[in-house]
Amino acid sequence: MAGPNMEMFRFAMYVFFPIASMYYFGDISFYNKYVAHLQLWPDSNPIEKLPQDSTDLKEELQKARQRRLEKKKLREAFGAEHNSNQGAAESS
């Protein structure tokens, strides 16, 4: 077993370490340097507003349908182009 000096060192670390960490991390300069610039909460003014009535909801649904159809057309165009390229590669 370790001697009394080791026990004194351990006791000093158990007492000193939490006090030192509270002193360092609780200091206002630490807060200003590392924490104050962080955005912890979302903005109060969101970029996209939620639809408030049925007409807004219908407009948003129509926009979503349009985006979905555009993506589908792009996939089909890419698929047709991709398939035609594969057929040409297989035949040669």
Can you describe what's shown?
By secondary structure, the protein is mostly helical. Helix content is 74%, strand content 0%. The longest helix is centred in the last third of the chain and has 38 residues. The N and C termini lie far apart (82 Å). The mean pLDDT is 86.
Secondary-structure blueprint:
Elements: H1 4-25, H2 28-35, H3 54-91
Brief overview:
This protein has helices spanning 4-25, 28-35, 54-91.
Low-confidence spans: none
User: Per DSSP, what share of the residues sits in E-state strands of 2 or more residues?
Assistant: under 5%
* Secondary structure: helix percent: over 70%
The N- and C-terminal alpha carbons lie at a distance of 82 Å
Could you report the average pLDDT, rounded to the nearest whole number?
86
**Structural class assignment:** mainly alpha
Shape descriptor: elongated
